[in-house]
Design a protein that fits this description.
With 320 residues, the protein is α/β, with parallel strands linked by helices. The chain has a single domain, classed as Rossmann fold, CATH 3.40.50. 40% of the residues lie in helices and 11% in strands. It has 11 helices and 7 strands. Strands 3-2-1-4-5-6-7 form a 7-stranded parallel β-sheet, sandwiched between helices.
Length: 320
């Protein structure tokens, strides 16, 4: 594999950087960390944002307003930076909180100043705090507002800040990690296999962003995607979510392989503005050899397969 993927080189025709740069939120653990390492292997340098700088830090991550949970979760920005550096990439540590949008905007400023620009924005982080799994009558509206700030408004501020630079350099890739909660109903109440309104409402709002970006900027070389990981075996799912009916899931490398494919494969251009069900696409395209594919769903969720395969897309275009 070349140091800089051909697709990235083509889309960076006006850039002066030796390697493309990816800006990832929520990079301290889970999907964000796996994607950072995967993109490092694909030739990217990584700007890494999250709240947790060092291992063992206490951060609020309770899913319910009924109690607090500040027990340390595995993972940190420091550990992710070391992992990407082990792949031969640079890793810039940028501590930031989604509820403080100025911190994320300042992080973009620093990356553009020190590294010359950003080629890929992976909006992976989400608000983690009380109210994620609480029924409506138990959820104060200000908690729902925090979900909207963290999951929609702050990512929009980041997008607005880095988009002009992408346009100036001739293109870029923007990927929003989405959720089935944004396009389908829960199988039960929050805490019984379902999720809270704040989470679903904010994910639904963010679900609309890549399509708007496609309409406004596809002709300018901006590629925008939604990626739905499905249930994934992250550190937080393992430590926090079993009590609420969620456990197991696909390896984080499934999503990392899909994000790397979207970043630089020319065939991925056909999915711009669409939703990609990561587990299905990874399995159908054989992106993670040896993985047996998605497990049968324990809940009757209806997946959004609109961007599942190129063959589906071609058929829809023929029938349109």
């Amino acid at each position: 594999m070349s140091a800089v993927p051909d697709g990235a080189r083509h889309r960076r025709a006006h850039g002066a950087r030796a390697r493309p740069v990816a800006f990832i939120t929520g990079a301290s653990r889970g999907v964000g960390r796996a994607c950072a390492v995967g993109l490092a292997r694909a030739g990217y340098d990584l700007a890494l944002t999250a709240r947790t700088i060092e291992e063992g830090e206490a951060r609020e991550h309770s899913s319910t307003i009924r109690e607090s949970d500040t027990s340390p979760l595995p993972g940190s920005l420091r550990a992710t930076a070391l992992a990407v550096e082990a792949e031969g990439a640079r890793g810039m540590i940028l501590p930031a909180d989604l509820l403080e949008p100025g911190e994320l905007v300042a992080a973009v400023d620093r990356v553009e100043s020190e590294w010359g620009g950003i080629d890929l924005f992976l909006n992976n982080a989400r608000y983690v705090g009380p109210g994620h799994i609480d029924v409506l009558l138990d959820t104060p509206v200000d908690v729902i507002a925090r979900h909207l700030q963290g999951n929609v408004l702050t990512p929009l501020e980041v997008t607005r800040r880095l988009l002009p630079g992408m346009l100036e350099q001739g293109g870029g890739t923007i990927i929003f990690v989405t959720s089935a909660s944004g396009y389908t109903d829960p199988p039960g109440p929050a805490g019984q296999g379902g999720w809270g309104l704040g989470y679903g409402l904010s994910k639904a709002a963010a679900h609309r962003i890549p399509g708007i970006l496609k309409a406004e900027h596809e002709r300018d070389g901006i590629r925008s995607f939604l990626v739905h990981p499905g249930l994934t075996a992250t550190e937080r799912v393992t430590q926090d979510m079993k009590a609420f009916g969620f456990e197991g899931g696909a390896p984080v490398d499934v999503i990392a392989r899909v994000v790397a494919w979207l970043a630089d494969d020319d065939e991925a251009d056909a999915f711009t503005g669409r939703n990609v069900e990561a587990q299905f696409l990874c399995h159908e395209r054989g992106l993670l050899p040896g993985w047996e594919g998605p497990q049968p769903n324990a809940h009757p969720l209806v997946y959004d397969r609109s961007g599942a395969t190129l063959e589906d897309l071609e058929r829809e275009l023929r029938e349109a």
